[in-house]
Amino acid sequence: MEISINQQRTEIPESFSVEQLLSFLFADSKKGIAIAINQAIVPKTEWPVRILHPEDKITLIRATQGG
């Protein structure tokens, strides 16, 4: 199915959860990540159960160190 991540069209498997998506994108660590789906923030506690749907618009922010 197709979703949008930071305005980039992306193909993912059906019934992917937010946690599965983040594991797919960031195999090393999910620390410092914030996610919004269709302009609504998704709390980390909901990541395992929040299933993505076709055409969802995801905003993904990853904190970085530095200054």
Automatic annotation (TrEMBL):
The organism's taxonomy opens as: Bacteria, Pseudomonadati, Bacteroidota, Cytophagia, Cytophagales
By its UniProt entry, which CDD domains does this protein fall under? Answer: Ubl_ThiS
Q: Which InterPro entries match?
A: Beta-grasp_dom_sf, Mopterin_synth/thiamin_S_b, Thi_S, ThiS/MoaD-like
> What is the recorded name of this protein?
Sulfur carrier protein
